[in-house]
Amino acid sequence: METKAVTIPDLSGRTAVVTGANSGLGLETTRVLARKGMRVVMAVRDEDKGRTAAKAVDGTTEVRPLDLADLASVRAFAEGWDGPIHLLVNNAGVMAVPRSCTADGFETQFGVNHLGHFALTNLLLTHVTGRVVTVSSGLHRMVRAIDFDDLNLDSGYTPGRAYAQSKLANLLFTLELQRRLEAAGSPVLATAAHPGYAATNLQSHAANPLYRGLMAVGNRLIAQSGAAGALPTIYAATQDVPGAAFAGPTKMGGTRGAPGLCSRSEAAWDSIAARRLWTVSEELTGVEFPDLSPGD
Ligand SMILES: NC(=O)c1ccc[n+]([C@@H]2O[C@H](COP(=O)([O-])OP(=O)(O)OC[C@H]3O[C@@H](n4cnc5c(N)ncnc54)[C@H](OP(=O)(O)O)[C@@H]3O)[C@@H](O)[C@H]2O)c1
Question: Given 3.40.50.720, 3.40.30.10, 3.40.190.10, 2.30.30.100, which CATH number is that of 8-283?
Answer without folding.
Answer: 3.40.50.720
